[in-house]
């Protein structure tokens, strides 16, 4: 699935930051730069769904990068610097509870270690994983440059697999063929969750 056209709506408001829940930690806080504050372009109803999915107020929302067939968000695109100035490298964030749970099950089964081992012995896969890393950085750069996280993507890219949620979110946001290990994870979890079948 790819990003949809999201017209900016003047009625949207900027939400306060919530607690960090993801394992990809942002870097140290820096002095607040009002010019870099994220400006949400999503509908209030999307923000409400995101808050429900995450169990907290969403932070730094730029747009909905992928949706369930029912229209609810599956991946949110997040500003590389949050409103409080915190660098935030994970610009595609998996929000759908069913998808998050299915990915967590894959992680618990040891898939990340297997993938990381394959990267060491499959040059083609390693090259594709590196290209995914580069795409991640290029897309994030569209939202602004953040020196503290320059060259740093997320999820263990470019050389490892440390968070499948990141890879799956990237794959859902960008479509098949951009993040090969994200694509693989999606295929592996298709019986329990897939984007084309609503389980919301
Ligand atoms: Zn749905």
From TrEMBL:
InterPro entries documented for this protein: DUF501
Coiled coil residues, start to end: none
Top-level taxon in the UniProt lineage: Bacteria
Positions of the UniProt region annotated as Disordered: 1-43
Biased composition (Basic and acidic residues): 21-34
One Pfam match: DUF501
Protein name, UniProt field: DUF501 domain-containing protein
Organism: Serinibacter salmoneus
